Prior knowledge:
The protein is an all-alpha fold. Helices cover 82% and strands 0% of the residues. The chain is rod-shaped, with a radius of gyration of 15 Å. It starts with a helix and ends in a 5-residue tail after the last helix.
Amino acid sequence: MLETLALDQLQVGSAAIDMLVEAHNSRSLHNPLRTAPQLC
C-alpha cells in the first residue's frame, strides 16, 4: 500500500512539473526578455 502511495505521489509530482514547464514556456514565448532573468 505504501508503494502505491509513493507511485501516486511521483505521478502527481511529475504532472505538476509538466504544468509548470508548459506555463513557463508559454510565458517566455509571450515576453522572453522579462522571463529570461528568472532562469538564472
